[in-house]
Write a structure and sequence with these properties.
heterodimer, A: 197 residues, alpha/beta, five-stranded mixed beta sheet, two-stranded antiparallel ribbon, 6 helices, 40% helix, B: 192 residues
Chain lengths: 197, 192
């Protein structure tokens, strides 16, 4: 018994060291989305492309624009990319989004707290990788999604359910190591389902 | 010295003068700026709601939630756009008559339990909430155990020494003394 007692401090040390070592490898800023496995929240917002905007005061004429809602995500696996012209990293990310959209990946844009005119110019100038772009000038949909900055990219399945959230720039490494495998998995599951029925 | 050199020299000294002057200017303007800044410290933006009670609840709430963007600040301290949005949202919900629990649910549904500076008491946080109490209890138990053992040791030692043992101890002690004396005297003899 006395012998075992001698080892108690060592055991405590080892356990504590193991816990602390495990903690070292964790990213303290990692913030999993609260909406994983939940559907994209309901929204009704105009499509960016059809919004008319006067150049000086950014007055938006929304009557003519097509109104998009959450049914946008049904039937296909999509990426939901949150972007804005004021976001520097979005400019960095943009060429890569162009690349992956060309390979057939469906990307829905969420233009977050942005000026309509500036956003339209951006897409005209740098290219438009988005199948649809939702214009969220007030940031209301961003709030419902738990967006806290741009860029953010959500992986949404064919039922409109969110599967993954990536905060920050999507580049080649992020796409190949994290997003694409998950995206491919969802797509494969969908094609299997279609073949079955 | 060629003309070119001369011009170069003149240029340099003029440059120096300009740099010197601009440094003086910079210092003066920095001093002025810092003076101007002093009164700004005392100006803190106070968000007022329709009633003092709501304002008070608002102040408490914004201190309890963590800014999702700048994670070591609460919503009250942070000036990031998302914190401003969330503050506005809390203000709106308060004005609409939402309870604290409803506001908490609203924010957690969007940003996760991550933004709670005061974690909820539930299965996943029992360890967090109970660990301090458990560790304190454990420490107290260890202390009580040690003290009791020490007491027992001293009391048994005192009780055991009695009668014959006391006498035996006495003879042992006197033996030791005798031996020491002997060795001392022999040491003395050697030295002499």
């Amino acid at each position: 018994m006395g012998r075992i007692k001698l080892f108690i401090p060592l055991i405590i040390f080892v356990v504590l060291a193991a816990i602390l070592y495990w903690g070292l490898g964790r990213d303290p800023n990692a913030m999993p989305s609260a909406l994983i496995s939940r559907p994209v929240p309901a929204f009704q917002l105009p499509a960016l492309g059809q919004l008319a905007s006067t150049e000086d005061d950014n007055q938006v004429v929304a009557e003519q624009a097509e109104i998009l809602d959450e049914s946008l995500f049904l039937g296909q696996v999509s990426l939901l990319n949150v972007w804005a012209t004021w976001c520097v990293s979005c400019r960095v990310e943009h060429p890569y989004l162009m690349d992956i959209s060309e390979t057939g990946v469906r990307i829905i844009g969420l233009n977050y707290k942005d000026e309509v005119g500036a956003a339209q110019q951006w897409l005209a100038k740098y290219g438009d990788p988005y199948a649809h772009t939702i214009s969220d000038t007030t940031g209301g949909m961003g709030l419902d999604l738990g967006v806290f900055g741009a860029p953010e990219t959500y992986l949404v399945d064919h039922l409109g359910v969110i599967h993954y959230k990536h905060v920050g720039v999507v580049d080649d490494r992020v796409w190949r190591t994290t997003l694409q495998p998950k995206y491919q998995q969802l797509r494969d599951a969908l094609t299997e389902k279609k073949n079955d029925s | 010295m060629t003309v070119d050199d001369y011009q170069g020299f003149a240029f340099h000294s003029i440059q120096w003068l300009v740099i010197k002057k601009s440094l003086v200017c910079l210092r003066a303007s920095l001093l002025l700026l810092s003076l101007l800044c002093l009164p700004a410290w005392s100006v803190i933006e106070v968000d007022r709601l329709s009633s003092p009670e709501l304002t008070e609840r608002y102040q408490q709430l914004v201190a309890e939630y963590r800014c999702p963007k700048c994670q070591n600040q609460n919503l009250a301290e942070s000036n990031s756009p998302i914190s401003i949005d969330l503050r506005n949202e809390i203000r709106r919900l308060l004005e609409e008559g939402a309870s604290d629990a409803q506001i908490s649910d609203y924010l957690v549904a969007r940003y996760g339990e991550f933004i709670l500076y005061r974690p909820r008491v539930q299965a996943s946080t029992y360890l967090l909430w109970l660990a301090p109490a458990v560790l304190l209890l454990l420490g107290l138990l260890v202390i009580v155990f040690i003290i009791r053992r020490q007491k027992r040791a001293t009391s048994t030692a005192q009780a055991a020494l009695s009668g014959a043992e006391q006498a035996a101890l006495q003879t042992l002690l006197s033996d030791v003394e005798n031996q020491q004396n002997k060795s001392k005297s022999s040491n003395k003899a050697e030295v002499e």
